[in-house]
Design goal:
Length: 309
């Protein structure tokens, strides 16, 4: 009986010891589970952060891709326009050189295809400069006025081309006088068709025409050649340089100096340098470096233009 009791005690002890071991293992397992749960929750939180970061990066990539696509489209459009202008100049130049001073004669000698190309170019430019003015007119009147404006701009374009082919060259004043006569002829025609208020509005648009034109050209070039400029800074450069180009080129047409390609290039170079002095006070160091790269590209273009003349 005692043996049984001892045996029973041993069994109970062993059982108790086993239970204690199980209990300790259970505590250990629970602790490990708690640690594992904490690690899991931390991992889940980290994963959420990573998912948010991936989503943000994807959004940035999508936006960058969109901006790049827009920049590429603008660059292709600009390249196409430049090719059309170059082709037009190549086709028109021989005619201009043979035509002599009267602009009407040089226009008459253009082929039908050349005249269509010239009209298309002047149509695009007139829309850039006077588009808002045209939109404020009665559609029927606007169509007539637009046609007259484009024809007048075509005469001015031909005069610019003629000036570079003159031997001896015209002076700046001589070219300016011829272009002023063309504009005066247009205004006289518009005065007979527009109300006094509309004519006053036209005068405002026309007074800023050269500045607006060069500003639009600069804006298109900056999109392709200075993509590092932000929208606000690009607008500032566009306005500043457009104003400087208009002032220097119009100034060239008011001098007694010969109007040559060399002087035309110098006027643009001066405008770039004057703008650099003004922009240096407003642009960041990185943005100004972007503008300087744009100036370098312009200098390469000037060199190519000088080599062709």
């Amino acid at each position: 009986m005692r043996a049984l009791t001892i045996t029973g005690w041993i069994l109970v002890f062993v059982a108790a010891a086993g239970c204690a071991g199980i209990y300790q293992n259970l505590l250990k397992t629970q602790a490990e589970r708690d640690v594992a749960r904490q690690e899991l929750e931390a991992s889940q939180a980290k994963l959420k952060e990573m998912d948010a970061l991936v989503a943000k990066l994807q959004s940035n990539e999508d936006e960058s891709a969109k901006l790049e696509a827009e920049r590429k489209a603008q660059a292709e459009k600009l390249e196409s326009m430049e090719q059309e202008v170059a082709a037009l100049k190549e086709e028109v130049q021989p005619v201009v050189e043979e035509a002599g001073e009267p602009i009407e004669d040089s226009e008459a000698e253009l082929t039908e295809q050349q005249q269509k190309m010239l009209s298309a170019q002047m149509g695009a430019l007139s829309g850039m400069i006077y588009g808002e003015f045209f939109s404020g007119l009665d559609p029927a009147v606007a169509e007539i006025i637009r046609a007259e404006v484009e024809a007048s701009m075509g005469k001015g374009f031909m005069l610019d081309q003629q000036a570079f082919g003159q031997n001896p060259p015209w002076t700046g004043k001589e070219l300016g006088a011829r272009k002023s006569a063309v504009r005066a002829e247009l205004r006289a025609s518009l005065a007979a068709q527009l109300t006094p208020e509309q004519l006053a509005s036209w005068d405002e648009y026309d007074a800023a025409a050269t500045e607006v034109l060069y500003g639009q050209v600069v804006g298109s070039q900056l999109t392709m050649l200075a993509p590092g400029l932000g929208e606000e800074s690009r607008g500032l450069v566009q306005r500043t340089l457009g104003e400087a180009l208009a002032a220097n080129i119009e100034g060239l047409e008011a001098t007694d100096e010969p109007y040559t390609m060399e002087r035309f290039i110098d006027a643009q170079r001066t405008a770039l340098q004057e703008s650099a002095e003004r922009l240096g006070e407003s642009l960041t160091e990185e943005e100004f470096a972007e503008y300087q790269r744009y100036m370098d590209q312009a200098e390469q273009t000037f060199a190519a233009m000088a080599a062709q003349n």
